Amino acid sequence: MSTHPTTARPMDGTARAAELTARTAAGAAELTRRTGTAPCLATVLVGEDPASVTYVRMKVRRCELNGIRSRQVVLPAGTTTDRLVEVVSGLSADPEVHGILLQHPVGAHIDERAAFEAIAPGKDVDGVTMHSFAAMGFGLPGFVSCTPGGIMRLLDAYGVDPAGRHAVVVGRSAILGRPAGMLLLARDATVTYCHSRTVDLPARVAEADIVVAAVGRPELIRGEWIKPGAVVVDAGYNPGNVGDVDFAGAAARASLITPVPGGVGPMTVAVLLEQTVRAAAVQLGEDPAALGL
Ligand code: NAP
């Protein structure tokens, strides 16, 4: 008989994101009441990649529903780096814009890093600039990358303290795996990064108290790799609503697990909105904490 008769408790990202967004909406309403100015997120989309169009539309809609204005900038696929930097710099300098989201990817011919760096640090509500990365790396306050930030919120909501735990992050992209590891390290986890060159991934994952899957390969992480009682966070999102983790297999061994969909995904947008209202508060001379943020 199994010594770990668990069926993991799901970490309900949809519910936790709704709670965070309700607090954010209340903060946005109070900020608007106090200052006469509603928070404003500028979105910048280059080209017509269908997934990017959908993501931006969804984020804009979520803003509108929660008292955040948006300004949508759509540029043709052939936009040059210079032009994109010019547009983003204009938004950085515009006092009516409080947060900037440059939707990734922007096209291979564009120097994406140059475009990201044109975002003023105080408006980097998607956590993509070197400034925000440094803050995450130092464990200092600042805007976090939204998906990793959402992962940390989920862990907190379910009482998972990363301190002293071994966190294994599978994936090291700049928007997801790498900052997820940085935030876990800042909370005193012992962090291992795995990637495409990692040898013996199953053995590395089997050592984890906390597994963060951030790869983009359907069900790469097998249930039998999971240490009994581990916490499994699946940030992967693959066609057909499939995560990077074999959910059924992992749920039979883990203590907590995120579903796909309804786990990490909703938290990402909730963090974007919260950071937008916090950015607006600071720019409008209000203390975010006084707004409940
Ligand atoms: P990415 O930029 O393609 O990075 C994938 C990472 O996985 C890379 O670091 C890569 O290693 C690593 N990798 C690839 N094959 C591997 C293997 N066989 N074993 C171990 N590591 C492997 O992807 P991403 O942008 O981080 O996205 C990852 C997943 O998260 C995707 O499914 C995406 O849709 C999802 N995502 C979800 C959200 C959300 O809001 N829920 C947000 C962003 C992304 P190398 O570095 O060595 O190439």
UniProtKB/TrEMBL annotation:
Gene: folD
UniProt cross-references to InterPro entries, sorted A to Z: Aminoacid_DH-like_N_sf, NAD(P)-bd_dom_sf, THF_DH/CycHdrlase, THF_DH/CycHdrlase_cat_dom, THF_DH/CycHdrlase_CS, THF_DH/CycHdrlase_NAD-bd_dom
Coiled coil stretches, renumbered: none
Subunit structure, as described in the record: Homodimer.
Residue intervals of the Tetrahydrofolate dehydrogenase/cyclohydrolase catalytic domain: 11-126
Pathway named in the protein's UniProt entry: One-carbon metabolism; tetrahydrofolate interconversion
Residue spans crossing the bilayer: none
HAMAP family, per database record: THF_DHG_CYH
Keywords, comma-separated and alphabetical: Amino-acid biosynthesis, Histidine biosynthesis, Hydrolase, Methionine biosynthesis, Multifunctional enzyme, NADP, One-carbon metabolism, Oxidoreductase, Purine biosynthesis
Entry binding sites for NADP(+): 171-173
PROSITE patterns: THF_DHG_CYH_2
UniProt key word DNA-binding: no
Protein name: Bifunctional protein FolD
Domain of life: Bacteria
Catalytic activity of the protein: (6R)-5,10-methylene-5,6,7,8-tetrahydrofolate + NADP(+) = (6R)-5,10-methenyltetrahydrofolate + NADPH; (6R)-5,10-methenyltetrahydrofolate + H2O = (6R)-10-formyltetrahydrofolate + H(+)
